[in-house]
Amino acid sequence: MPLQRRLPKFGFKNINRVEYQVVNLSTIQKLAEKTNLEKITVDDMVVAGLVSAKGLVKVLGNGKLTAKVEVVANAFSKSAEEAIQNVGGTATKL
User: Fold this and answer.
1) pTM across the whole model
2) How many domains, in total, are found in the chain?
């Protein structure tokens, strides 16, 4: 048996990968209704228990947003940014 078939396979781990904690628009809508905030920051999400304080936060476009809010996060998906702007809010990247 040749050496390359005897040894186990192993993959590639990218050292430059950026890991995000995700928050959906539906969760932001619930948070806005519950706390009556017009500006939702990463600190508000940490206090609500949605994300941990150490990681980066990315907002994804899953769900429906009806509240006009200003959302501050590290990253946004294109659909989330469009949905926030369509309601009249703003998406600010840190």
Assistant:
1) 0.82
2) 1
